[in-house]
Amino acid sequence: MNTILVLLAVLFACLTEGKLTREGHCYDDNDLQNYKHFVGKHAWNNYPSFYMVKELEQLESGGNRQRRQTRHSCPNLVASSIQQVTEDHNSRSISPWRYRIDVDENRLPMKLAFAECLCSGCIDVRTGRETDAVNSVTVNQTMMVLRRKQCSDQKTYAFQVEYIKVPVACTCVLPKSHY
Ligand SMILES: *[C@@H]1O[C@H](CO)[C@@H](O)[C@H](O)[C@H]1NC(C)=O
């Protein structure tokens, strides 16, 4: 449904804006200032990978640093440190993950939140420590984005629809050798 709306919006934008060349429609920097007219106002608003970016940037720039410190390594959830676990699923999971902002200047949206697993194994709920008997893997969502390519005049840009795999969370799975 969203994809159809986005495609209609792209088509509409192509018909009404930009310059038609052999490469397709080429847009200049002024057109790019507000990319919303390429994709429709609400196209990506339902994707956490999109709307979480703003939240993550606010966290990184200070504010709630104590409350939601982002971890970069596999946590050791021994009883004494259990308070460090926040209400968020990414830190309560036995395959905990963090979010990093992926920046690609030739993609719309330029910034997306990518999930990264903190452990290669998972947290054993009895010991609170990592166990290699099971594996953390990312759960991926396919998402439509627009890929920006420079036109031959070196000044304007054309756009192509592209589908990318976005890691949105981590889950705990048995190793393949179990089957
Ligand atoms: C998601 O993609 C990653 C990287 O390509 C892959 O290793 C992982 O197995 C995928 N997750 C699932 C659940 O298929």
TrEMBL record:
GO-annotated cellular components: extracellular space
Recorded hits in Pfam families, A to Z, give: IL17 (PF06083)
The family assignment reads: Belongs to the IL-17 family.
Q: Which residues form the signal peptide?
A: 1-18
Give the top-rank taxon of the lineage listed in the UniProt record for this protein.
Eukaryota
Gene Ontology molecular functions = cytokine activity
Q: Which InterPro entries match?
A: Cystine-knot_cytokine, IL-17_chr, IL-17_fam
Q: Which GO terms describe its biological process?
A: inflammatory response
**UniProt keyword list:** Cytokine, Secreted, Signal
UniProt name for this protein? Interleukin-17C-like isoform X1
